[in-house]
């Protein structure tokens, strides 16, 4: 079924958007035009622990990813080569093509794990190391319960920094992803969602009829400060 499948509704200027066989009302033109969200999760390891990157446009290009929206699904992971002693960790990295015609909601699950002062953020459900996979999906219903792998190897799930957020695709032309990175004593922590219990580390990620024009990140806390070089925002849509 085409992402742009439409049925005319009774009200003037309003159409029904067809997601996974279910029609839902929404203003005409307010929808992501592309069929697939290709989300690339690139995880690096170094002397500062683990660092996760999902956006393609940070100032530090050595860690950029291939995340995009497209009419075709990505099947090959695209990650920057890393630098400064940081190298890619294939067991925790992955690419996932989310078919946006499969449901009304993009349910993003952000799972954050902690070990020996280090934070590791996971977004995707399909990495080779299944202990750190998440419940991120596209569905006709919004997720209300966080789904995270249990962790392992000394890594424990941190609920204060983890969250699930449902983004309504029926009325949103853009998915505005805000990747906020904080640093402390040579360690790095990435947050993507705006609704974790620890509000000092929330981001401005949203679904909207307009493209964001500025990065929106909370300042951090507890010795963690915002790292502008690795933080970025990206409006996905057209």
C-alpha end-to-end distance:
20 Å
- Detail the poorly predicted runs: 1-18, 22-29
Shape: globular
Strand content: 35-45%
Task: Please state the structural category.
Answer: mainly beta
- What's the story with the biggest beta sheet? 5 strands, antiparallel
Number of helices: 0
* Helix content bin: under 10%
**The number of domains:** 1
The number of distinct β-strands equals: 18
Q: Overall mean pLDDT score?
A: 89
What is the C-alpha radius of gyration, as a whole number of Å? Answer: 18 Å
The succession of helices and strands, N to C, reads EEEEEEEEEEEEEEEEEE
Describe the structure.
The chain has strands spanning 6-8, 14-19, 22-27, 36-46, 49-53, 68-70, 87-88, 94-99, 105-115, 118-122, 137-139, 156-157, 163-168, 174-184, 187-191, 206-208, 225-226, 232-237. Mean pLDDT is 89; it is low at 1-18 and 22-29. The protein contains no helices and 18 strands. It starts with 5 loop residues before the first strand and ends with a strand. It is globular. Strand 14 and strand 15 (187-191) form a beta hairpin. The protein is mainly beta. Strands 4, 5, 6, 7 and 8 form a five-stranded antiparallel beta sheet that branches. Strands 9, 10, 11, 12 and 13 form a five-stranded antiparallel beta sheet that branches. The protein has one domain (33-237).
């Amino acid at each position: 079924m085409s992402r742009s499948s439409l049925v005319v509704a009774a009200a003037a200027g309003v159409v029904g958007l067809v997601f996974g066989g279910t029609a839902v009302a929404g203003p005409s033109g307010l929808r992501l035009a592309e069929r697939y969200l290709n989300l690339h999760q690139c995880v690096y390891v170094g002397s500062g622990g683990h660092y996760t990157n999902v956006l393609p446009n940070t100032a530090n290009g050595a860690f950029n990813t291939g995340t995009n929206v497209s009419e075709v699904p990505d099947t090959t992971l695209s990650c920057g080569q890393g630098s400064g002693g940081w190298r890619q960790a294939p067991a925790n990295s992955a690419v996932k093509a989310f078919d946006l015609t499969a449901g009304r909601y993009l349910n993003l699950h952000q799972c954050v794990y902690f070990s020996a002062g280090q934070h590791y953020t996971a977004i995707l459900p399909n990495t080779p190391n299944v202990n750190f996979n998440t419940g991120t999906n596209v569905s006709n219903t919004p997720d209300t319960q966080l789904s995270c792998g249990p962790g392992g190897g000394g890594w424990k799930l941190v609920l204060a920094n983890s969250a699930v957020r449902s983004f309504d695709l029926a009325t949103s032309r853009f998915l505005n992803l805000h990747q906020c990175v904080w640093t402390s004593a040579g360690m790095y922590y990435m947050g993507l969602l705006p609704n974790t219990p620890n509000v000092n580390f929330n981001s401005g990620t949203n679904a909207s009829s307009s493209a964001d024009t500025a990065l929106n990140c909370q300042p951090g806390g507890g010795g963690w400060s915002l790292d502008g070089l690795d933080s970025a925002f990206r409006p996905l849509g057209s």
